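Case study B.
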Amino acid sequence: DGGITQSPKYLFRKEGQNVTLSCEQNLNHDAMYWYRQDPGQGLRLIYYSQIVNDFQKGDIAEGYSVSREKKESFPLTVTSAQKNPTAFYLCASSIVRGDTGELFFGEGSRLTVL
Amino acid sequence: GENVEQHPSTLSVQEGDSAVIKCTYSDSASNYFPWYKQELGKRPQLIIDIRSNVGEKKDQRIAVTLNKTAKHFSLHITETQPEDSAVYFCAASIENFGNEKLTFGTGTRLTIIP
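Model:
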């Protein structure tokens, strides 16, 4: 069954701790994205990657880091420098890079900082 | 940059009635406008999109209209059913500039009352 898998679905973290959210896709898509979703706000882009070993900052990259060592994988690390990390995080991919088209989303990871 | 406003934030309609969600955008260069549906606890999915070379697009009970002069576009759902209950997001972008340039609205929570 093709798609995007995010894990964990729920995660609790203490202040000052880094946490890594996993995103894996078997759609053979070039481009991958991380979005943050907060109540009453639209999806905001954190980081994106159009090709392996390359990634770019989105609109709200501060306090986050990513890697793209494999085409299938695009993990997001929420660092202790992120001031307000409690949020719902969505990973997405698309077929082509550098163009607009359908985004395929994972089911999300809800991070709560205690 | 682009700014997308979406209204209303919540909408309740009787089953069988129509629902309309409206979005405005600020960048006159935007020419690609997708709509995503996110059912409770599920991933967002593309339900329809429109490009600025057309004024209206239909897909069964769903239609989207675009007014380039006024810079607004709307989602119309007719004969609403319980499975239409979800959060709907509009977005705007310039085609060929990449999904990373996609700006989302703040979402509308649609509730269908049986």
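Chain B has no helices and eleven strands. The remaining cases will be described in the next quarterly update.
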